[in-house]
Design goal:
The complex is a heterodimer of chains A (307) and B (360).
Chain A: H1 2-32, H2 40-58, H3 61-85, H4 90-108, H5 126-129, H6 135-138, H7 142-160, H8 162-172, H9 174-179, H10 184-210, H11 222-232, H12 237-251, H13 253-259, H14 267-287, H15 289-294
Helix pairs in contact in A: 1-7, 1-10, 1-11, 1-12, 2-3, 2-4, 2-10, 2-11, 3-4, 3-10, 7-8, 7-12, 11-12, 11-14, 13-14
Chain B: E1 2-7, H1 13-37, H2 42-55, H3 60-82, H4 90-107, H5 116-142, H6 146-166, H7 201-218, H8 220-230, H9 232-237, H10 242-269, H11 280-290, H12 295-319, H13 324-340, H14 342-345, E2 346-351, E3 356-357
Helix pairs in contact in B: 1-2, 1-13, 2-12, 3-7, 3-8, 3-10, 3-11, 3-12, 4-5, 4-6, 4-10, 4-11, 5-6, 5-10, 7-8, 7-12, 11-12, 11-13, 12-13
Classes of the chains: A mainly alpha (307), B mainly alpha (360).
Chain lengths: 307, 360
């Protein structure tokens, strides 16, 4: 009895958590390199509409995901060109990217509103993925397992590899990294492109897995929650995983309350909960002095070596 | 041939004023090309969006009405941006200002008197300022990033609006539509030019911009804002209180956004509806930057963005350009402005093997 209630709840939480986990993981790498890209929401929307359009046209979802990664990474490349090559203000450029993404995705997706696509198939046999209890482990979209692998991979990359060390060095002390011969701008470009590709997967998780359809502003501000999640996690991938599932639980409160016939508080209050919870969490994290020193030292500062 | 950036000793004044114009022209050119490539009438679209509203004198009144909220919010945001306070939740403060003023309108419903409208405006300003006070408190006391907190509060404000429209503030005689009563004559902004839609809020927006110009350029407060933004360490050394500046910047931004909110509610809307948030709070970010964070520049930028709104509607009805195209044009303008910003700080050098000439 409790199983039949608990399992769908766990599954919706995982569903809500996965896209913000993917987007935040990309942003974490970007911020570790010392760049603040506030365009997450815009890149996610570009990914969402591209993934949907390509899947609807070709009928093949993996192709849609790859196209979404390329499109979102391209928009991240635009951000990189402005902020890294032309040293434009990162905050303003990120905001511009979000406004651009909202407009461009609405424009591109106009003909796809109301269409549906085939839901992503499972990688596991139906005996497992549709089993009443075991589906809590095997019943997700392949992208959910991909997101978990990526968390482990990014964590390993940042801590154990030479590339990760260089990335962190660039984010903590760009001048020293430059003076010992590393290309600060080059490393940051790679990080920004990676962040874009991740936002692309996150975006098409909405249009191909969760809904699955396209509507204007489909991501509804989740990109901003992903940004907050990076702060919450203190720039550590494993804590990001925990945070994402916690946020996923809060984000699905409205859904579960409705299903359970809970009507003590207004549905609007529950809909506002993820945003209120984000503010509360930020307040708790930021108030601690430790939270401050966790941020990469060069975060948001443009780099221009004097030549 | 290599292109190199060479830092100027001082930011170029000429480029500072020239780059917004370059950005607008570049947007028109790029827009024409891009929209042609995706199968629309690109040149027609640019002509409709950027020129038609200016050539048709009948559309000028719409330009004023659209520009007013953009100018008010843009001026408020510019005060913050100058001080490096990144309030991007103006949309939420605009909603809360509109709601606070609407609260007064509903409380005074059926009453008459000249005092009602000013009271609504004061409530609107106070509502917007109070809502911006939340990120100010969080920033100064708990060190919470104001970008994220002010934006999160925008989504909360939208839910507050929906709640009030579906519940407590619903018009009792409104056939269950989620909207308030229509405001009465004493609660509606009078039109200043008979026979047009130009309401009192339009001249007020221009007055506020001029007043802000004086405050920012002539007062100690304006100086403090600039110093805290440009050199926080120097500001601390000079005895300026950073926290007080953060408070002032957010309250000013929120107050002006709230003012814009109640002027919209008591002007073009004439009641409060769920469709009240129209994105002015976000577009005003573009206005503030395009206007170079200067109140007079913001007036001009507000008019330019108003042109794209009115022109976007024209292009929609005449050549079937999608509504979302307007947002793409507006964002492109900001991209081009940020890209050309490099010309203000740097000189572009074209270094060729034969002759290392200075082309800038």
């Amino acid at each position: 009895m409790t199983d039949s209630l608990l399992i769908p709840i766990i599954m919706t939480i995982v569903g809500a958590a996965t896209p913000i986990l993917l987007a935040a993981l990309g942003e974490l790498v970007v911020e570790k390199s010392g760049v603040l890209n506030l365009g997450l929401e815009g890149m996610m929307l570009i990914g969402a509409v591209t993934g949907f359009a390509v899947t609807a046209t070709t009928g093949y979802a993996p192709l849609g995901v790859i196209a979404a990664m390329i499109a979102a990474a391209a928009s991240a490349g635009l951000f990189g060109f402005l902020t890294l090559t032309l040293t434009a203000n990162q905050v303003a450029t990120g905001l511009a990217l979000t406004i651009f993404g909202i407009g461009l995705s609405a424009l591109a997706g106009e003909n796809y509103v109301g269409q549906t696509v085939d839901v992503f198939g499972s990688v596991f046999p139906a005996a497992l993925s549709e089993h009443p209890v075991l589906r809590v482990i095997f019943g997700y979209s392949p992208l959910v397992y991909v997101s978990l692998l990526l968390v482990a991979a990014v964590s390993w990359f940042l801590r154990k590899t030479r590339g990760g060390l260089i990335l962190r060095a660039v984010g903590e002390s760009d001048l020293s990294a430059h003076s010992i011969g590393y290309s600060v701008i080059g490393v940051r470009y790679m990080a920004v492109l990676f962040g874009g590709a991740m936002a692309g997967i996150a975006g098409c998780f909405y249009s191909l897995v969760l809904t699955p359809m396209w509507a204007e502003q489909l991501t509804a501000g989740r990109g901003w929650i992903a940004l907050a999640l990076v702060v919450f996690a203190g720039w550590r991938p494993m804590r990001l995983l925990l945070g994402a599932y916690l946020f996923g639980a809060v984000m699905t409160l409205e859904l579960h309350a409705k299903a359970a016939g809970f009507s003590l508080v207004a549905p609007e209050f529950l809909a506002a909960m993820p945003y209120l919870a984000t503010i509360a969490v930020l307040a708790i994290i930021s108030a601690r002095k430790a939270g401050k020193s966790l941020a990469p030292a060069c975060l948001g500062k443009p780099f221009k070596p004097s030549s | 041939m290599l292109i190199e950036l060479e830092k100027r000793k001082e930011p170029s004044k000429a480029m500072l004023y020239l780059t917004p114009i370059i950005a607008v022209v570049a947007t028109m050119l790029a827009g024409a090309i891009i929209f042609s490539l995706i199968g629309h009438d690109g040149i027609g679209a640019v002509r409709k969006i950027f020129l038609a509203p200016l050539l048709d004198t009948y559309k000028w009144q719409d330009l004023g009405v659209k520009a007013a909220p953009l100018i008010l919010i843009g001026v408020g945001l510019a005060i913050g941006f100058r001080a490096n306070v990144w309030n991007i939740g103006a949309e939420g403060q605009y909603i809360m200002g509109g709601l606070a003023g609407t609260g007064v309108a509903l409380a005074t419903w059926g009453m008459t008197g000249w005092w009602i409208l000013p009271l609504m405006c004061i409530a609107g300003i106070a509502g917007g300022a109070a809502y911006a006070g939340i990120p100010a408190f969080l920033k100064t006391r708990l060190n919470v990033n104001e970008i994220l907190s002010s934006l999160m509060l925008t989504y909360v404000a939208i839910q507050v609006l929906y709640y009030l429209m579906r519940g407590p503030w619903k018009d009792p005689d409104g056939f269950n539509f989620p909207q308030t009563r229509l405001f009465t004559d004493d609660q509606i902004l009078p039109t200043v030019i008979p026979g047009t839609v130009v309401h009192l809020g339009v001249p007020l927006a221009f007055v506020v911009a001029v007043a802000a110009w004086f405050v920012l350029s002539r007062s100690v407060f304006g100086f403090q804002i600039r110093v805290v933004g440009a050199a926080p360490a120097a500001a601390r050394y000079g005895g300026f209180n950073t926290n007080r500046t953060i408070w002032a910047a957010l309250l000013a931004g929120g107050g002006l956004a709230g003012f814009a909110g109640i002027l919209e509610a008591a002007g073009p809307f004439g009641q409060m509806v769920p469709q009240f948030p129209t994105g002015y709070g976000f577009t005003a970010i573009i206005v503030a930057f395009l206007g170079r964070l200067h109140p007079i520049g913001i007036v001009l930028a507000g008019i330019i963005l108003a042109v794209t709104y009115v022109g976007g509607e024209l292009a929609q009805s005449s050549i079937g350009l999608p509504a979302a195209a307007t947002g793409v044009f507006q964002a492109m303008m900001l991209f081009f402005l940020l890209a050309t910003d490099v010309l203000v700080k740097y000189r572009i050098k074209f270094a060729s093997p034969a002759k290392a000439g200075d082309a800038a």
